[in-house]
Amino acid sequence: PVFKETYSPLSSSELVAKEKSMMDEKRFAHCVRVSETARTLAKLNGYDEDKAALAGFVHDYAKQIPVEEYIKVIKEEGFDPDLLNWNRAIWHGIVGSWFIKRDLGITDPEILTAVYRHTTGDVEMTTLDQIVFVADYIEPGRTFAGVEEARKTSYADLASGVGYELAHTLAFLVQKRSKIYPRTLAAYNVWAAE
Ligand code: GDP
Ligand code: FE
Ligand code: FE
Ligand code: FE
Description:
Layout: H1 12-21, H2 25-44, H3 49-58, H4 67-76, H5 88-94, H6 96-104, H7 109-116, H8 127-138, H9 147-156, H10 158-175, H11 182-191
Helix pairs in contact: 2-3, 2-8, 3-7, 6-7, 7-8, 8-10, 9-10, 10-11
This protein binds guanosine-5'-diphosphate and fe (iii) ion (FE) (3 copies).
One fe (iii) ion binds next to loops.
């Protein structure tokens, strides 16, 4: 991919190379597809397509950073110590935005917040937050039961896509008896509950 503006001191090719160096090929391909899906959702919702494409591209930048590095950063950089009771599934958004700022030099608050919120959602979500959250869920590589309905719902109405995703993710986590991160539940109550 090529980005017109990287919101960072890095050029597009430097940024792409750095992202590639952080993850395996499957994860990288997912990030490219999320970027393209984010661009489509941006176009449908009157949002800056290039910015959405970049946010989608970097959303999982930190997904494969070693757990030990996360623990060190959470302890040393002033993160809520409760994060230590969770795992990389939760960390790579919240702490991932910190790694993106450190490594890619991206400081744009909209991009950083979209990464921060991309796994759990949040009570308040900007248009870009919603775009990245939904693009991650419906990108063409996703194959779970219900993904076609998720796509249809999201392309018809972005906020309804957020609600669909939160309801289905919560049901999936409960069925696995996974711990629910409080912010995921709070987001569900706002975006999905009747
Ligand atoms: P990915 O990074 O592209 O795989 O997707 P996400 O960042 O959206 O999600 C990463 C993982 O976190 C998925 O397996 C989600 O089901 C999981 N997840 C999302 N919310 C919660 C939560 O509240 N609790 C737990 N335990 N896992 C969650
Ligand atoms: Fe993710
Ligand atoms: Fe997601
Ligand atoms: Fe993702």
